[in-house]
Amino acid sequence: METVEIALPFLVHDVGLEYAEPQSHYSIASQSMVTAAVDVLLDHRCFETPLGWVLALDPASLATFLWRPEGRGGERVALPAMDEDLPMNCKCLLSGDPAAAAACVVMVLDLDAFVFWLCRVGGGGKWERHVYSLTVFNAKDQPVERHMANRHGIAALGGKVYYELNGYALGVVEFNPVDAKPKLTSIEVDMVDTSASPAWSSYLVESCGELFLVVVFFQGYNVHEVAEVAVYKMDFSAPAWRKVDAIGDRVFLLGGDSIGESNFGASCSASKHGLAGNCIYFLNHIAISENFLHIINLEEGTGEVLRPFKEFVDPLRPPFWMLPTDP
Fold this sequence. Notes:
Blueprint: E1 10-14, E2 23-27, E3 32-36, H1 39-43, E4 45-48, E5 54-57, E6 64-67, E7 76-79, E8 90-94, E9 105-110, E10 115-120, E11 128-131, E12 135-137, E13 143-145, E14 154-157, E15 160-166, E16 169-175, E17 182-188, E18 200-207, E19 210-219, E20 222-235, E21 240-244, E22 250-256, E23 263-269, E24 279-283, E25 293-297, E26 302-306, E27 320-322
């Protein structure tokens, strides 16, 4: 099967002990689950992106393509083959809509090393490997190497990639429009103060052409219980993070790799996909053994906790989001 059989967005959970087995798909709109085998997910290494497209890598030939999970036949956008297999832990972002061809750069980050790969859609080139170095200073004024995507938020907006650099700056990756060569810059902006909370997790989310920062505060050191979810919108004119109490006819979908190694944030229309607006769906990947799905209604100030995968323990990987490409 090339396309999915359940309405997007949904969560994918491994059922068996092998990657090449059917997975459970949990629809957040209908709160129902089906178990199905999707060929691309079974036969390829797949990396979901906040724009809904999935980067697929054939482990045998190292051929790559972008796959659109919804729609008849599952649309594909061809990409060059890799020179070597990607590392075990990676994260993928798209700088824009792949349908815009050369305007879109595919970025894959190694979560265990200071390396990323770039490829321009429709550019006729190849995957380029880049090594980077980011140094920040801790509270003791000691230099510390900073990773772009490990344990904090990262998102693409307006053809650029933004990430949480430190407490007073937002990191930026810009791409040359001709050859996609990256340029690392930053924006001076005070980030949200989280010092009063011993346990928290942060996510950058692009929604309708705007950049949001979502911070999930846990109840003390108990990462199984969410105490508060705060949402901030970037005001690039200041620049400053402005706290907001509503996101309109949108839902934010949060998750990531186990124990927060990679934080994932995306958004989509609520009404278009049968969901209530002003809601945040947080798959608690920090306490992944429980697979709690927290639903926070910003307008009503209420929260609900679901556990759709309670029958499955110790998954091969944390449940991950499959999203519509027309958010």
